[in-house]
């Protein structure tokens, strides 16, 4: 395996990062403590380097129709300056990836995709190219920072010198050769900042230094995972993959059924009617932390498996996402999770597990 | 990192403290740092028989579960209830309040196989390389 490092690898090392691998990427897992970093994002602010993610630019007079046909949500007619979270699906309705499309103008878009899927996505986008669309892979030239948490507001105003929080949720604007978007993967308010590599070190340093007075610390991938799990956000490759459709994955709201043809539409509709399993939130009642792969039972009968599970630092409970058979997906269903030599009592609960008071 | 001289150590980063036949067991400063924030501990049951080098407890961080291996064979005669309620004690005070269990050793020779502080420090340096 060819291990890749982030453009800010040296900066992370200097901050005392403990590294781990995420796909082919060597990334900071944590700097000080996972629990402290998690809590800091919930109460104050944290800065993440998520430059491993793939970034493409799609341009041209047909760019909007081209992307609209590949994603399950509507893009045509959406106002410029909007960030659209959507799955892209295969013809058979299976989710190829979940991505964000940023509409700069109707002939100019940014697309940010999961790092692990970047090669596959590029191939998919490339194979669907048509005249009047230009696709550029800028993953090697662009980095991505995420500034997340309630104190992001004063920090952004002071350090970035601009009140990006005037933008609504899932809005963005162009900045410094990239974009700043009101998006994130933590369940807190915040910004994601896409920047050319030559700009990224300077803004990372400025935010680390200038954010300190508001409690900002660097946050690694471990806390990123617990934050997104509490917020009920899915991780591609773990909570969803090519085997499931958006309805089964609990993101059916991203499928615009009124939209004209898009790749996977017919199959998704059919699968929705014959749906056999469903992603649910699970709260563990007994002592024990469910992990990816733990089987889920009801009345001694296997009904599914955990896809993500962790101790929730905010709720001080053990929580999980997992798939269960459709008849067991109702909120309040009592289930059991097989862990080592025991069964843990657990409950199907409403998602998200945690919701910020700031309404994200 | 500190490794008290009055303890013995295992390759798998447990410490053992001798008090007659009773051996108190915990994880080392190195192990707690590597595991990072402990959020859950599953201790052995009282009177459970454990075997040297075999898993006797589980310590979990936010990210993963780690097996804790028995430094000596014998019967579990005490477990630290305090860390079930507050697993962070394993990080905060791994040699005192963060102990896991006490084993009544049944083979005296096993204690002699454990590493001294100097040997353990050397072991860590090698594994870091």
Report on the architecture of this protein.
The complex is a heterodimer of chains A (360) and B (129). Chain A contains eight helices and 20 strands. The radius of gyration of chain A is 20 Å and the shape is globular. Chain A is 21% helix and 34% strand. Chain A has 360 residues and is an alpha+beta fold. Chain B has one domain (8-107): OB fold (Dihydrolipoamide Acetyltransferase, E2P). Chain B has helices at residues 29-35, 81-85, 89-92, 108-113, 117-128, and strands at residues 8-9, 14-19, 22-27, 38-42, 49-50, 55-61, 65-69, 74-79, 101-105. Chain B has a six-stranded antiparallel β-sheet. Chain B has a three-stranded antiparallel β-sheet with strand order 4-6-7. The longest helix of chain B is centred in the last third of the chain and has 12 residues, at 117-128. The radius of gyration of chain B is 13 Å and the shape is globular. At the A-B interface, helix 2 and helix 7 of A face strand 4 and strand 6 of B.
